[in-house]
Design a protein that fits this description.
about 15% strand; elongated; oxidoreductase; 10 strands; disordered C terminus; 4-stranded antiparallel sheet; GluRdtase_CS; Beta Polymerase, domain 2; alpha/beta
């Protein structure tokens, strides 16, 4: 059985091309069933997100399986063979295993170490199982990938350091104020950045959200999506003393919050601290506000410095993650190679027994006057010769099964003993050795 991945992602193709290969949930189900109707494809799983579309397949014939997947994708996207070569990548065996493990670990994502992809991999696998288009190899492959993704995040903490402006802003407020569940947040501006920041604030359990915008209608629209309160911008001065967190991202060309105003607000708040984040460019909050006691002010440069530090920490974590993946690949490869080797061992034993039985019958037919005890002695002799003859080849092939070249040694044994192994028959005019040389090139 051969495994392969064919796909495209944000690094290999533009969004216009990715859109052509995007699948809805129903389309994935139909596409998966269509693919498994191909003679050479025993199981498959389709992973389709905004940044990637990938088909994972287990095939009895590598060339035919790849051709089937390629033909399907070209027809689906109405693309040419030239465009396929330009936008798509193909991974087989070792590279296919590594690719899925890296995807599940967030190492192949647009944002290094992001967490959403692990859930998307799990959903894709569960869908393949429910549609009954996976097989034993796909099941084990994806189950281990999900385990690897969890292990990488647990052992390296790669996803614990925020690298987006909005998420970093909320994480900083949490570090300053602690638990945000009892806090009130005041957001100035109702644009995209404000919306993203609000999403993270709500996720952290902020108790109350107040949104101020020069267009009250926009503020109301955003407030309706987060169960918040919309106010006109003129009410900011009257409501700010309620806020534990102030996030400002307006399109103003001048400061909208000045030091004198914040000093008045803090007098009314007493010693209760306020966390202020100015995401706007040009800035909304006068930098002198940072001089006010119990006010913690961060601007976009402060956030970027934190993000840069976190990105560097994620890159270091990614190095450790690659080491984890290497170990997991070795474990999966041993299991995968054993699937190829075990049928060869069985076929070899069967052939040895067939030859033994044939020659034993021939010998006993010529030795007509043997007693039952003598016949057993002759039979034991024949068994012993066959078992001893096959012992070393079987022992060696079991050991080779733990290496990336296990499939190749298995094929050599099949050719040497003229074995016919179901599901591993050599195609006329094609050698499996040729098919695998490229796959194990990095590990020869």
């Amino acid at each position: 059985m051969f495994i392969l991945v064919v796909g495209l992602n944000h690094k290999s193709a533009t969004v216009e091309v990715r859109e052509k290969l995007s699948f809805s949930e129903n389309e994935i189900c139909d596409a998966s069933n269509q693919l498994t109707e191909e003679m050479s494809i025993e199981g498959c799983c389709i992973l389709s997100t905004c940044n990637r579309t990938e088909i994972y397949a287990a095939c009895t014939d590598l060339e035919r399986g790849l051709a089937s997947v390629k033909r399907f994708l070209l027809e689906r996207g109405e693309l040419s063979s030239e465009e396929f070569s330009r936008y798509f990548y193909v991974h087989t065996l070792y590279d296919a295993i590594r690719h899925l493990f890296r995807v599940a670990s967030g190492l192949d994502s647009m944002v290094l170490g992001e967490t959403q992809i692990l859930g998307q991999v799990r959903t894709a696998y569960q869908r393949a199982c429910s549609e009954k288009v996976s097989n034993g190899i796909i099941n084990t492959w994806f189950q281990q990938a999900i385990t690897v993704g969890k292990r990488v995040r647990t052992e390296t903490g790669i996803d614990q350091l925020p690298v987006s402006t909005s998420y970093t802003a909320v994480e900083l407020s949490r570090q300053v104020l602690g638990d945000l569940s009892g806090c009130t947040a005041l957001v100035l501006g109702a644009g995209k950045m404000s919306e993203l920041t609000l999403k993270h604030l709500v996720a952290q359990g902020v108790q109350k959200v107040i949104i101020a915008n020069r267009s009250v209608e926009k503020a109301q629209e955003l407030a309706s999506r987060c169960d918040g309160e919309a106010i006109p911008f003129t009410e900011v001065y009257n409501r700010m003393e309620e806020a534990d967190i102030v996030i400002s991202c307006t399109a103003a060309t001048h400061y909208v919050i000045r030091r004198s105003f914040v000093e008045e607000v803090m007098d009314r708040r007493g010693s209760k601290p306020v966390f202020m984040i100015d995401i706007a460019v040009p800035r909304d909050i006068d930098p002198e506000v940072a001089q006010v006691q119990n006010v913690y002010l961060y601007d976009i440069d402060d956030l970027q410095n934190v993000i840069d530090q976190n990105l560097e920490a994620r890159r270091k974590a990614a190095i450790e993650a690659e080491k984890i993946i290497d170990k997991e690949i070795h474990q999966f490869l041993r299991w995968l190679n054993s699937l190829f080797v075990i049928p060869t061992i069985i076929a070899l034993k069967n052939k040895g027994n067939q030859i033994k039985e044939k020659e034993l019958d021939r010998a006993l037919s010529k030795l007509k006057n043997l007693s039952e005890k003598e016949k057993k002695v002759v039979g034991s002799l024949a068994n012993s010769i066959v078992n001893q003859l096959l012992h070393d080849p079987i022992t060696q092939i079991r050991q080779y099964a733990a290496t990336p070249e296990g499939h190749l040694y298995s094929e050599i044994l099949q050719n040497m003993f003229c074995l016919d192994v179901p599901g591993q028959r050599q195609k006329k005019g094609t050698s499996r050795k040729q098919e695998y040389v490229e796959q194990v090139r990095c590990h020869g």
